[in-house]
Amino acid sequence: MEASVIVVGLEGSPADEWLIRYAAQLAGLSDARLRGVHVRDIDNLDRPPKAQLEQDRRLLSELHGTLAEVRAGDIASGLIRAARQAGACQ
Description:
Structural class: alpha/beta
Radius of gyration: 13 Å
Number of helices: 3
Shape: globular
Largest sheet: 3 strands, parallel
């Protein structure tokens, strides 16, 4: 049986660390994999804070998680699509 996945939406801000750590605790309690997702505008006009996303990537790696960047017209649809593709349980 494939492990469950917990997806956490990240915005590239300092609050991401708390979200990642909280999601990692949930993943540990339910023996699930952890995936962080950052949604970028489909038109690519936004510029994500690269230093923060790199910190997020390192923290996720330390906590045995991964980071995915997706493009979408809006954040909600991007997160929903990423969660479905990952087979997320939460």
